[in-house]
Amino acid sequence: MYYGDLDTLFFNLQKKYGGLYEVYNGPERVIWIGDAKLIKKIHIPSTKTNFPFRSRKPWVDEVGIKTTGKGIFFNRNLESWKYNRRILSQTVALPSFLRQFFKTTELVFEEFDGYIGNLLNVNKNEEFDLSKWIVRILSELSSRSTTGRPAYTLSSYYNRLSSKNSKKNIQWLNNYLTDLIVNRRKEIANIPKDQVLSHDILTLLICANTERGPQFNKPGDEPDEPMGDDDIKQNLYDVIIASIDSSSHTILIALYHICKCPAVKSKVYEEVDRVLGNDRSSPMKYEDLEKLTYIEACISESMRMLPTVPVIFKQANNDDNLGDFKFKGGQEFFINYHYVHHDETYWPDPESFKPERFLENKNIDKISYMPFGGGIRICPGRQMGLNSAKTLIALIFKNYTVNLVEPDAPLKKSYIWANECDELKVYLRPRNN
């Protein structure tokens, strides 16, 4: 039995045994891959790939994730997966959605800013554990942008402070989303057709391929079908889980890396002041996002150093070979992105945090950098996640002087399904105009 950080264990095993090794979990044989050249075959961007699915193993169902042929993350029905992927990926890439998502991010940050200001008025030397705040910011943002309804996670946490370990109740969320979809359909039916609807994901999915919403076509321009309630529910579930867990810890780990390096932090402040201005009252604009190139480079380098999802699993449909080895159909493969991101073949001095890598080298080999996965299973909401990270990091540094309480301490993190920042204590001081 191993007790400790499994990501670190897997990284060290890959370092010891090389780009391809096998382990046994009881009778189950699992192949670990840390060689980017071998991963390339698994990540062929075509539905004809021999690796279209994540695990078919029963443990996926045992942890509460029902693989019912709906949604995208654990959907084992390829035709259903293609349909859901097609609709969801186009929905979260709509300019109207991304603009509303940005505005919602700003509004949620303003709420956070107000609570922090009130707490600082009481105790100017207060420490803030951003790991608690950022997760709640992303929970609130996810709820509002996905369902159109607030979750009130920030206000409840603020009220507790003025006086993580809650497990997600999958059954509760399932029932909540079921009722929400039914009620939203009724609301839309009663809204005049000439009235513009909101651009949250729930509304967009309900209205997709109907007279009230965007039209998405199959390959060959054949019209797609409207989405049923079960598909909508599973897609909402997928988005909510991914947008809270992955995004919040991506932001926290990036903040840690930025604050650990004074030279990097100085450049972040310089870019924020140049692009957004140094007046705390001036709003950030959606068009500012593409100008925040250094902050984006910091996020990219942080995801290289410590990807939130360091390992993904795939399964071969049929017999296949990787390198000089042959494998039977059904073989499960674990792809170690964390290890690939530290391969000196692609990343000189891989243990150093250097955002400039992503500014100076525009031709980074795609197989060496996969923070959002790859192939047909690449994350459909990657632009949404990157936008939320850039917006929140920019607003934090625009409004506050941020310093780590323990600047020499290692990142306090753990790994279960993903790398999670367990604690990030900082001093926040409002910046002068």
Automatic annotation (TrEMBL):
<dbReference type="InterPro" id="IPR050196">
    <property type="entry name" value="Cytochrome_P450_Monoox"/>
</dbReference>
<feature type="binding site" description="axial binding residue">
    <location>
        <position position="379"/>
    </location>
    <ligand>
        <name>heme</name>
    </ligand>
</feature>
<keyword id="KW-0408">Iron</keyword>
<dbReference type="Pfam" id="PF00067">
    <property type="entry name" value="p450"/>
</dbReference>
<dbReference type="InterPro" id="IPR002401">
    <property type="entry name" value="Cyt_P450_E_grp-I"/>
</dbReference>
<keyword id="KW-0503">Monooxygenase</keyword>
<dbReference type="InterPro" id="IPR017972">
    <property type="entry name" value="Cyt_P450_CS"/>
</dbReference>
<dbReference type="InterPro" id="IPR001128">
    <property type="entry name" value="Cyt_P450"/>
</dbReference>
<protein>
    <submittedName>
        <fullName>517_t:CDS:1</fullName>
    </submittedName>
</protein>
<dbReference type="GO" id="GO:0020037">
    <property type="term" value="F:heme binding"/>
</dbReference>
<keyword id="KW-0560">Oxidoreductase</keyword>
<dbReference type="GO" id="GO:0005506">
    <property type="term" value="F:iron ion binding"/>
</dbReference>
<keyword id="KW-0349">Heme</keyword>
<dbReference type="GO" id="GO:0004497">
    <property type="term" value="F:monooxygenase activity"/>
</dbReference>
<dbReference type="GO" id="GO:0016705">
    <property type="term" value="F:oxidoreductase activity, acting on paired donors, with incorporation or reduction of molecular oxygen"/>
</dbReference>
<dbReference type="InterPro" id="IPR036396">
    <property type="entry name" value="Cyt_P450_sf"/>
</dbReference>
<comment type="similarity">
    <text>Belongs to the cytochrome P450 family.</text>
</comment>
<keyword id="KW-0479">Metal-binding</keyword>
